[in-house]
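It is worth pausing here to work through a concrete case rather than discussing structure prediction in the abstract. The textbook approach is simple: state the sequence, then state the predicted structure, then interpret. We follow exactly that order.
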Amino acid sequence: MGNASRPFRRIAYFLCLLSVLLLTEGKKPVKPKCPAWCTCTKDNALCENARSIPRSVPPDVISLSFVRSAFTKIPEGSFLLTPSLQLLLFTSNTFDVISDDAFMGLPHLEYLFIENNSIKSISRNTFRGLKSLIHLDLRGNAFNCDCKLKWLVEWLGSTNATVEDIYCESPPEYKKRKINSLSSKEFDCIITEFEVFQSLPYQSLSVDTFSYMNDEHVVIAQPFTGKCIFLEWDHVEVMFRNYDNITGTSTVVCKPIVIESQLYVIVAQLFGGSHIYKRDIFANKFIKIQDIEILKIRKPNDIETFRIAEDWYFVVADSSKAGFTTVYKWNGNGFYSHQSLHAWYRDTDVEFLEIAGKPHLILSSSSQRPVIYQWNKGTNEFVKRFDIQDMEDAYAVKHFRVKEDVYICLTRFIGDSKVMKWGGSAFLDLQRMPSRGSMVFQPLQIRNYQYAILGSDYSFTQVYYWDAEKAKFVKFQELNIQAPRSFIHVSIDKRDFLFASSFKGTTLIYKHVRVDLSA
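Step two, the predicted structure:
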């Protein structure tokens, strides 16, 4: 506010105080319409030590003042019976709440003084309807400058009324700061949470999502029924529904891959071999087109699909003592064995990622530290680079990115799971999380929010949120999931969902919701 407005404010304030003093002069009060604790004249009313907002003040009163009153709240519509008010003053009272529409029905109010009271916050629609307001004084109140006050900061920036300087009393980081000079950008009022949206009455292991025929789909592996269950979004019922199955034996992974608009599904099984299916759009069903060699893939545990240059691949992590973790390549008609990475290592997980623009695989094993392979352009094969140091056997490794930095989440069943960061030549320790029966530590990005979810067979699943300022994860939420094995983010109809598989309970679908604390 400029210096030119200060004389005007002083005059307005003086006029207000003068009106209070005039009320005590020898004017004859209008007794029939004036409460016992108020002094009323033709145009003015002074209420001292009032126990509540009076309803019997003369309707043609222009000025109304409350001093040292005992009421604790200004309710909605408190002044509907005094529409002629032009000046309203509250000073040295004890109320701490002003409700929405407290001053509704005062189209002529020009001066509003709410000073030296016990107010900590004001409802966001407190001043709604004050079309003639030209001066507001909120000094001497202990404002808590949290998200509930964000609306006031925005209102101060848009109102035409002159507002005296007011200050924050709390929280500590805002103490003594001028509210008039705050920006709404300083208030981080949007929080998120996961809430249960839908429950699927079956156990599951892997969950995957894929885009096909201009829609999003989900496929879930059911180990006990041996099925791959396919779900789609019902736009009418607003829920997920089953539309097809692939039936097998002890299915552990159902991995979709879309190549030139054709959908294929790699079905990994513990018994009866693993197979590849093709979606026949004319017959509207899945047809088995290929078996995966059983001599190499004996006990599949994870499948990863990826593309290098123009070629499509998938790799199967084999956890048997005699199996081979093997890379398969698409040749236009089917997939053929391209490279066996190593045998006898009992691999439990495989992760594809790019480091410094080069394709890599990370293999996790129950018998050794995680191993990193790098793609060799000359031989078109993966070559072993190094182990991840300072890490004992990890059940799984999953990666995520924050801007240009590469991170990995390493899962350990018992002990400490880890977050590590790529340092240019090796992954370096960043953070440890206690694991209690953990078989999944999955990073997920939903919109602009980066999470990591650490499952547990013996306790609650922990959801962590990436704190950009601290450059690490912080505890965010606990989820009650029985023996979780995988998590996946699905985005449909501007809604975001988290699918959580369960080896011992029901498969759960959570909705990712945003909550505005300033609302």
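Step three, interpretation. DSSP finds two helices and 39 strands in the chain. Residues 1-18, 20-32 have pLDDT under 50 and may be disordered.
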